[in-house]
Every structure is written in C-alpha cells, then in structure tokens.
Amino acid sequence: MEPSSPFRALAEAMEAVAQTSRKLEKVARLAGYFHTLEDEDLRTACTFLTGAAFPAGDARQLSVGWAALVQVLQELTGADDEALHDAYLRHGDLGEVAEELYPARRTAGPSQPLTLARVRAAFETIAAAAGKGSRGLKVATLKDLLGVATPLEAKYLVKIITSDLRVGLKTGLLEEAIAAAFAPAGEGRTADRRALLPPVRRANMLISHVGEVAVLARHGRLAEPALALFHPFHFMLAETIFAPEEAFEPLRGEEERQPALLVEDKYDGIRAQVHKGDGRIAIFSRTLDDITGSFPELLPGLEGFADRYIIDGEIVAWRGERPIAFALLQQRLRRKQPGRLVEQVPVVLFVFDLLHLGGADLLTAPLRERRARLEGLRFSGPVRPSSATVAEEPEHLAWRFREARDRGNEGLVVKRLDAAYAPGRRGRQWMKLKEELATLDVAVVAAEHGHGRRALVLSDVTFAVRDGDRLATIGKAYSGLTDREIAELTRWFQAHTTEDLGRVKIVQPAIVLEVAFDAVMESDRHDSGFALRFPRIKRWRHDKAAAEINTLDDVRRIYERQIVRPRAEDEAPDKRPQALGAGGGGYRPA
Ligand code: AMP
User: Phi and psi for 110 in degrees, rounded to 5?
Assistant: First the structure.
C-alpha cells in the first residue's frame, strides 16, 4: 500500500473545525491540512469531510445498519445495552458515544496507526460485500477498523459511517478551503483566494466530486472540467416559500422586486436528466444513476429534439390527463426491465429545462432564453413541456396554485427569469410554493420508539389541540427536532409516563411543540376529526404551557381558509376530482 496520511490528522482537523464557529478559522485550518496530503489522500479526505464514505455520484454505499454498528461498538468496548443507551441519551450522536465509551476499551497492544488509505480500503470492502454472509463480512471489517482506532478516530469514523458529520462544514466552506489552500502564493494571497473560488465552484458543479476538484486546483487544472454528455451533474434545487409575496421579494443586495417570474406546476415524480449524443440516449436520476432501462417508452419522444442535448425534467406516473400514485412509479424504478408495468403504470416526462443544445452549453444563459429554446423543440408522445406561464403579481400565483392543484399536481415551482442554471444549488432562484398556513402549537400526549437509529429514543410523538377542556389528537410527527432535543425529551417522557403501553407511552400533556404542515384534512384517524398533511415539528416551545395551545376551532378556521381542502382519503390520487385542464398551460413570454 502507498504511504498514506494518518487518519488521526483528519480527525483532528474535523475536531478543530467543529470547535470554532468562525468561518475563516475553519477555512485556514482545513487549507493547512490539505497541504500535507498527497493527491489520493486529498481526494479521500475531502470526500470524508463531506460526511460521506464515497464521492457524490459514486453508486457505492456502505449500507451498514445501525444495529451492526452498535453491535461492533459494544463488542469493542464491552458496554452493555444500558450504558450505551444512557450515553446515547446524553449525546444524541453515535460518534460522540463511541468517543466516550472508548477509553474503557482494552487496547490490543501496539498496532499500525490508521491511515486514510486503510480506511478507504475498509470502506471499499464493506461496500462490495453482497449476498449471503455479507453482514458478517461487514461487521468483521468494521471491527478491524474500529478496533485500532483511538477515541477521537472512532468518533469521526462512526460519524462518517452514519453519514452524520455535524461539524458545521458546508460544501461552500470546503470549496473556500480548497481555494485558500491552492491559490498561487504571492503578495495578495487573499485576493488570489477570492479569484480561485469561482473556478473551484464551477468545477465542483460540473463534476460533483470535491476531492477531485481539490486535486485539479492543486495542479492548476480547474479549467478542464466541462459539461460533457453522459457525465450527469447535480440538479438545480428549489427553496420552499410559503406565501406568494415572498416570490417577488428582492434578494440581499438587490434593490427592486422581481417584475415577472416563470411559474410551473410542481409535478410529483422523479427528477430526470436526459443526455443525447452520438446516437445514444441516457436518462439519469437525481442520484445520478442511469435509469434509461426503466423507461423505454420515453425514448422515441426523446429522439426528435436534436442530435446533441441535455434536458432536465420530471418523470410522473400519469394516466389520461392526471398524475397517479407516486408509489407506482417507485415500483417501476425497482425493475431493471419494466415489462408489463409500461402499460400498467404509464409515465410522462415533463421537460422544464434545456442545458445543452447542439454543441452550445446553456448553463449560464438566463432561464428566459433557455425556456424560449425549449419551447422550440419538437415534443411528441409522453415527452411534454412543463406547464409554464409568467406571473407579475402575487395574485397570479394564488390563482395558478389552485389551477395546478386542480390538475392533481403538488403546487408550484416559481423561477426567476434572469437566473442561470446552478447545478446542486438550492436557493431563491427557484422556489417551491407551498400553501401559506399558520403553524399550530400542540401538546404531546403520547410518545413511542422510532426506527433504525431512533430505536433507542422516544422520537415519534402524537399530539393534540384543545377542545374545551379535553384534548383532541390531530397528528403524529417524527421529524424536525435535533437529536439532542429528542434525547432530552426521551428522558422527560420516561419520567412523566402516565400509562406504559409497551412501545407507546402515554405522557402528561405538558410538552408544547410548534408544528408546520402542508394542509389540514378531514380524517377519521384522529379524534379531532382532522389530520395534518406532512406534519413536521418546527420547534419545541419551552416558553408555552399546555393551557395556551391552539384549539380545535383554530383548526377548523385554517381548514375553511385553505385554497384547497383535501380529505385524508383524497391522498389516494385516483380519487381526486376530475381533470379541469390539460397538463400543459403554454408559455406566455413576459
Ligand atoms: P422537493 O423535492 O420538495 O425539494 O421539490 C423540488 C423538486 O420538485 C425538484 O427536485 C423536482 O424533482 C420537482 N419538480 C416538480 N416539478 C418541477 C418543476 N416544474 N421545476 C422544477 N422542479 C420540479
């Protein structure tokens, strides 16, 4: 094996980054560390710094279950279930648990220090393990790896294995550290760093492999990556907004509100990037996997556009003029060859962006121009342009929202006409509009154990609103709180259980949570007669008592005020009301 840098140096760098909130310090610490690494280690270290075992776009996965990891930690440290459970409740992070339990471990005597190459090789072995006996091989490999780790190394190995780094390190910061590390030395180092940042970002957008970008930056080869056919890149993403007015607001540094925005239906399907060239067509998923084989019926419609192009769109399960259940589409994805599913679950590809056409890259062209060119393509069969119109006022959006929902689509995606296509970025250039609804303050009445990594804690809560002097349940949620909050709440629930039903604990109704949701639905599931669609916990209202939570009357008012009033049963899309219009609305330029 090549000489390789100690894993300890990476763990120390991660720890240093976690311990400061100052961005420049983080950047400087990482830049200094990058200098010490050979190319292959630099690739690996950058990947691990994204909290992943493999680079984005690499199909390999560790697939190590929570139970397997816990088993290895217990075998190595001798911690029993209770000790592990207690430590987890204190930290809410398995990496920190490992660090705490490790010193008690008997060390196996002097051994080779862990290197980046060794960790890389172990991860490759784990990812390659398949079929019968694979769990045993994974556990043995993990045990070898963690068996030689120091407490700090174990902490960060576990964090990477669970893809849960949490050290306050975003991709943008990693890009800055790369620019700082490899800016040409000279008098104006800061100026050089600034100059190197845009090419670093651009290269990372195109190849989505921050480690490779670091190596290119070191060798002055950042200009090399280019948009290349059959090399899929990350998709541009949308930020959530809740009110139509928000869409028009100027961003920081801008003086004027947007005069006009492009408005499209938000289709509920799977994202697809299609590349065509050299007589070949390939469809890539959001995870950059090749999914062409699953959708053979789309290929004829994709032939006619041009000889060479890249488009972006959404594949939706669609019958007649309406979407059908998303779960059916997932069935198709699971099959390499769809067979009879082609007829049973028909699909449509709604195309909403054009990124390359006949040799010309359009990533930096404004959406206005990309969309106009897209409208000029020859669409046929199940390949269609997305419904797109231009809105100049918030009221247009409210109206378009209702129209999209009537067509059975999820809502709207609103896009700035002057924006370039920014791969992998989520921002206000694209916004998804959810209906503006008040949040509700609710009281927790029951708690139960979650699944997987949440199996040790009471993470799933049932909550209620007030109806006179009784509490009426209205929903259940398990996302939105931090692991630390969940650990703290678990302790509280354990101490305030009024009835223990085994998995479910009925608790004193004293914890108040603020929950957000997409809609209020009529439902028989809960005793309030209503249910929340996609409830998520926004925050724990330490400041509120159960006497102050929202009432069933409040819920009724929100329900009445909604633009669309669904019933829980309507969630099965076949039962949605009849179509009012076709999927496409036609583009009307501003
Ligand atoms: P979300 O998955 O909730 O973050 O919403 C963003 C996703 O909506 C995108 O990644 C697309 O897969 C999907 N989507 C549906 N319709 C559109 C559209 N017209 N424009 C952009 N994205 C869309």
Answer: -60, 140
Q: What is the pLDDT of residues 6-15, one digit of tens each?
A: 999 999 999 9
State the Cα angle at 54 between 166 and 76, rounded to 5°: 65
Q: How far is Cα of residue 160 from the mean position of the Cα atoms in its chain?
A: 17
Token representation of residue 167: 């050290």
Mutate-to-test residue for ligand 1 from 285, 314, 428, highest number of ligand atoms within 8 A of CB:
314
DSSP letters, 418-463, are: TPPP-TT-EEEEEEEE------EEEEEEEEE--SGGGTTS--EEEE
Residue 549 CA neighbour count, 13 Å, CB half: 33
In CATH, the architecture of 237-433 is: 2-Layer Sandwich (3.30)
Are 261 and 417 in contact by the 8 Å Cβ rule? The answer is: yes
Angle at 166 between CA 447 and CA 475, to 5 degrees: 25
Q: Which residues contact 58 (CB under 8 A, 6 or more apart)?
A: none
d(CA 341, CA 361) in angstroms, rounded, equals 36
- Nearest residue (CA) to ligand 1, atom 1: 238
CA-closest residue to ligand 1 atom 11 = 271
Domain ranges in the chain? Answer: 237-433, 439-570
Note the pLDDT tens digit of each residue in 254-303.
Answer: 889 999 999 999 998 999 999 999 999 999 998 788 999 999 999 999 99
pTM for this entry? 0.67
- State which fold the 439-570 domain adopts: OB fold (Dihydrolipoamide Acetyltransferase, E2P) (2.40.50)
